[in-house]
Amino acid sequence: MISIQPFTFNQFQENTFVLFDETKEAIIIDPGCYSPQEREVLKAFIKQNDLKVVRLINTHCHIDHVLGNKFVKDTYNVKLEAHKIESEQLNQVPLYAPSYGFGGYDATTVDIFIDENTDITFGNSTLKTLFVPGHSPGHLAFYSAEQKFCINGDVLFFQSIGRTDLPGGDMDTLKNSIQNVMYKLPDDTKIYCGHGNPTMIAFEKKNNHFIREA
Hints:
Keywords: Hydrolase, Metal-binding, Zinc. By secondary structure, this protein is α/β, with parallel strands linked by helices.
């Protein structure tokens, strides 16, 4: 059974997730840890729970979700995995990081390309990969049908959706991803968001004023 530990990091209040199961193998999704203190919090949790980090994955590569990529790669000797399209997004981060106050950002690159045909496996667990572009052109989400949850990055939020005014964003594409991918998940699926609290598919279908179920 997969356990999920969220952390909220950096000035954007980004949610980083550590997923692990009974084997103690773990994956880190969207490490936003930037400060030494934030990185120590992540390290302490992994050490205290005797976890072995085996994968590092980005749902997408906007700055707030990638600030800890290099740290995690170097600390746990893992490779960075993301959609091929997101490489361009990641390569742009060093150019604008200082303007957001992240002058110490350590650049890195995507090592392994994944897409909607790639299952994410670790320990005894498997997540299905969903392609949900719109907020970012190569955005992915990770879904467990068995445990009815989805790590969805910045696609769907509690009564909101991801912004589309950033480079590569497109509102029509995002709406399509929500209506034809996210809203096709079972109503009792719990959605872990890239910012803020989790939500449920059934709740968003009824209450999300951006995109209600038709």
